Amino acid sequence: MTVLTHAFTPGPIVASGPVKLTLMAPVARFSLRLRATNIPAVSKAIGVDMATTVGVRAANGTTESICLGPDEWLIIAKPDDAETVTKACADVYSSATHSLTEVSAREVTVRIEGERASELLTIGCPRDIDSIPVGGGCRTVIDGVTVVLWRDAEQSFRMDIWRSFALHIIDLLCTGCKEFAAE
């Protein structure tokens, strides 16, 4: 796993009002590409029955995956499990070729929750947030920045943001929270 001095400190960003923003602790994060015929072997190796429908998530314990495209998944796990995921995939590589790239340091995750969380996400996002089912997710854009949005509950989301764009997106979300507070 890549070790990076974390420039972002996990914890509350906005703690009051109709939406709360929290910077989440770092996770082990992997980009996985593979052909459909190799999904069963890799799923078994990492212990998660990976979905084959774009936007559908799967989890087993603290390891979670989301299908982002017909041959692309994002896998997250506890940082301590990064080596386990890497080894499991390496062990099946000869019979189930794939590309597993650790991208843990590439992104930060912000939790967005509260009674107006889905409304806040409409700031700069062309996607119909209400069409994302609870337990689903998607790759989308916020103010022109590509993000991965995980919907954990009706008004609870996680947003994975590339580190280089994180301050911009967090600032945009904070501005939206201030606008809600001013109403």
From TrEMBL:
* InterPro entries (UniProt xref): SoxG, SoxG_het, TrmE/GcvT-like
Query: Any signal peptide, and if so, which residues?
Result: none
Specify the species: Thalassospira indica
Top-rank taxon, per record: Bacteria
Q: What is this protein called?
A: Sarcosine oxidase subunit gamma family protein
